[in-house]
Amino acid sequence: MTENIILDTDAYKLTHHLQYPEHLTKIYSYAEARPGSRFHTLSWFGLQMVVHDHLLGKVTEDMIDEAQTLSQSVFGNDEFFNRPVWEKVAKIGYLPIRIKEIGEGAQVPISTPLLTLESTAPWFATTLNALESILMHVWYPTTIATNSLYIKKGLEPVFVRKRQFERAGARCQRFRFERSQQLAVGSAGRCSSFAAFSQLR
After folding, report:
1. Which of 7, 92, 174, 180 could form a disulfide with 186 if both were Cys (CB 3.0 to 4.6 A apart)?
2. What's the predicted TM-score (pTM) here?
């Protein structure tokens, strides 16, 4: 099945352009881990994988047609699908957005802004946050990286005491690939775990 970036979202987000004020030309969004987490810090990891795998492709007329057909079947009309905007995206050949993030692997307190998402074309502003659903897939690798970080912290004193610290990374790998529901998920989890244990000091 060919991925369609227009449809890689929650259905209601296809209607965002009808919900914002008229003449809105700029949106600047951010993501953070909300308070109430198990840990007071997190290890941010995986956004570059998400962007590489899902946001660098080109939108085509076939994708637009497919999205409009599905939108019509979901909502019962054509009024909610913003075809003109997606045709502009297809014409320029890329998504008119700017993404910034803290460094991959950074350990930061909960509630720290982790990424920002910004529209760079006025006509795309009201469609921008439809991409949120894709970007939120960063939480799986970040969760694995964070759990691995705290496992590492718990084991560090043992390896230091036994003078085997340089071998800790190899001994602490968690073999999660086999039980993943999809290959891409398994790869993301494996990379996240490696990221935590490859920098033991």
Report:
1. 180
2. 0.81
